Amino acid sequence: MKYLGFDLGASSGKMMLGELDGQILRTKVVHRFPNRQILAAGGLYWDILNIYWNLKNGIEKAVYESGEKEISLGVDSFCNDFGLLDKEGRLVNQVYCYRDERTKRKEKEIYSKVSKKELYMETGSQSALFNTVIQMAAMVEEGEGYLLDRCRHALLIPDLLAYFLTGEMHTEYTLASVTQMLDWKTRSWHKGIMKRLGIREDIFPEVIPSGADAGVLDKEKNPEFANISLHVVSVCGHDTASAVAALPTVKEHVAYISSGTWSIVGTEVERPILAEETFRYNIAFEGGVDYRYRMIKNVMGLWVLQECERDYERQTRRECSFAYTAQEAKKAAMLKFLIDPDDVCFYMPGNMLEKAAKYCEKTGQGRPETFGEIARAVMESLAMKYRYVLEKMEKILGYRLEEIYILGGGGQNRILSQFTADACGRLVYTGPYEAGLAGNLIVQMRGLGEIATLKEGRQIIRDSFDITEFVPEKCELWEEKYSQFKRLLDM
Ligand code: ADP
């Protein structure tokens, strides 16, 4: 059997074809395409039909490349955004992007109906304006509630794309778990919260587990695929859950960092721990593969570095490759400057080199002068922040997280991986770089019975992808500077 994974990110989509060869997963990326948010008439949207066109295009390529007419497909993407379907099953709205500002405009009104804390305690999801519940409540507040009332169902993006292919409607569990509408205790829709926010209680279809059968291709609706037999498996639709399914270890009590534009730092736990402290620190407990909860905290991630690189390119009109950043950072002095990557001043794009230099000046550290000094400071500070978050989590958990696994594209940043080992004083492992897609394929294989357990899948990932180990070095220096870093966070 050939397995095809579709992974949609905010800036690009990728499709990977995979096949099990003994205990080795052989993979090939067969399709890539750009994705973007589009601002129109004051609303921010995704071009969902273009995304679907690319999904179909990738299926065609996969069939052509593999010569196989029987394919299994899994779809994952960023979470929270949804399309609305009328009773005939037709799409009735443009799919809003989670950054659309209707949520910000109505924040006060929404939280006065259901408090942030209640939403957190009932659902285990982090407090964030992009959550589906806030998006829908904002539509109600802004007079768009009629759309929600008239539609038969709302479908989250991966479920919507699967529906276009199969005609079947469902909500996959990991996606549902981060809408802030799912009762974490019963794993069903939280009708009380929905009602109080004016959202129809049956707006989403039934929640199905990750790995469940999600239907077969509807050939009448997709006549161009008349000769293909396509089976859809409901993989972990939430891309981070999918990446964590691909953890290349069978050990328990390990930490992971899903590293890209954002860094999602976390560990797997059996049950949410919802308390004053976790609420205050906005630590979420999101649904994961096999109902293992992902205890997570969002850290600003490589965003600040990406923006510094863009800024450098604008100023010098020279290309700033990953290799150039690494070379310049290596030239700079160790642990001379530190920033809090989550400081609000770094949230918006633009002018990032100046923002970082100003931050250092303002906090009494002097002013970094070169690009290399700033790039180094950003990476060292991210590593420090990882340690800070891990220590907070360990305090809540009551045990140490012995190893760190960096999943996703950010794992290719070797300097940051070494700094993470040094700052945290733990072994760090990087890979797979396409963790979302690797997890997508593993969950399909388990769904179709080609592998029996998640443990077996993770062992296959470990044996099939290059996993690099980083051993902590120079830990005393990092230890010395860590108290200074913590003081910065209190400023
Ligand atoms: P996202 O979808 O969140 O942007 P990805 O998993 O695609 O995340 O990771 C992309 C990020 O990984 C890039 O923005 C960059 O910071 C980092 N990255 C990718 N390749 C490399 C590389 N060769 N060296 C250093 N960093 C890299």
UniProtKB/TrEMBL annotation:
Superkingdom of the organism of origin: Bacteria
Every Carbohydrate kinase FGGY N-terminal domain range: 3-244
Pfam families: FGGY_C, FGGY_N
Domain annotation Carbohydrate kinase FGGY C-terminal: ranges: 255-446
Residues in the signal sequence: none
Entry keyword annotation includes Nucleotide-binding: yes
One Gene Ontology term from the biological process aspect of the record: rhamnose catabolic process
Family annotation (SUPFAM superfamilies): Actin-like ATPase domain
GO-annotated molecular function: ATP binding; rhamnulokinase activity
Alphabetically ordered keywords of this record: ATP-binding, Kinase, Nucleotide-binding, Rhamnose metabolism, Transferase
Protein family: Belongs to the FGGY kinase family.
PANTHER family according to UniProt: SUGAR KINASE (PTHR43095), XYLULOSE KINASE (PTHR43095:SF5)
Protein name per Swiss-Prot or TrEMBL: Rhamnulokinase
Species whose genome carries this gene: Mediterraneibacter hominis
